[in-house]
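re the bet — no i am not wrong, look at it urself. input seq straight from the record:
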Amino acid sequence: MIKPMKKLLLFVILIPFCTFAQNKPTPRSVVNQIKENVTCDWAEKTVDVFKAGNPDTEIKGIAVCMFADMRTLQKAVEMNCNFIITHEPVFYNHLDDTEAYANDPVYKEKRQFIEDHKLVVFRFHDHIHMTKPDGIYAGMIEKLGWKDYAVDDRGTLFKMPEIQLADFAQELKKQLGLQTVRVIGNPEMKFTKVGLAVGAPGGARQIQMLNMPDVEVMVAGEANEWETYLYANDATTLGKNKAVIFVGHIKSEEAGMDYCAQWLKGFVKGVPIHFIENEANFVTF
C-alpha cells in the first residue's frame, strides 16, 4: 500500500507529463496559433482551410511546402511529418473542388496515400499574403538579396544598379536554381527599375505593373501567353524599354514558404518543423 506522502510525491511528479500529453500540438491548435500570429483579421471566405485529414490528430512533425505534390508528400512521410502546410491547392484547382475527379485514378491514389499515412493537409495562402510583412514577398526578397534595393513598403518595386537584361536573367537562374527562365524583351536592354509580381496574379495586374513608370523589368511567376506575353512582346516591338522575366510559379514564391517555416518556429513548440523544397515539375530539352 502506497503511503499518503508517497502518493502526493508521485502525483506531483506525474503532473508535468500529463499536462504535456494533454497539450501535445494538433493541426487544429497550430492553425489557431497561426490565426493569433498573423497581423490581419482571419477572413470568413478563404481557401486557407483543412484540405484533408483529421485536424485533431497528434502532430509528429510539420512539413511546409509550396506545392503538396506526391513527391513532397512522400518526402514528408519519410521525415515523419504528418501535418502538411502548403501554399497552393492539393487537388488541381483553386478551391480543391474534387467533384470532377471522383473517378480519376491519380486523384484517388493521392487521396488514398494521404489517408493511409494519416496525413493532415492545410492550405496557407491568403493570410500569409495578407499579414504584414507579406510572408511570401519577405521570403523572396531575402532569397534574392533585394532588401537594400526596395523603394516601396510592399516590397514589389526595386531600384537596382544598372544591368543588362540577359545578365540579370542569368543571375535569377542561378539564384533560384532554375534550368531555364523565359525572357520577353531586348536581351541587351539596360535598366535599373524592377517590379516583382510573384505567383499568378493575372494578366491585368501584371500588365498594370509593367506599365508603371517605376518598372522597366518585371520578374513574374506565370501568365497566360495571350495576355502578359502578348503585351510585353508588343511593347518590345514598339520600342518601349520594357521586359518580363518569367521564373515559374513555384520558384517565384517558394522562398516565402521557407520563410513561413522559420516564422512558425517562433511560436509553435514541441514538434519539428521542416521546409520541403519542391522538385522541378517539368524538364526542358
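see?? The radius of gyration is 23 Å. told u. also The longest strand covers residues 157-164. so pay up
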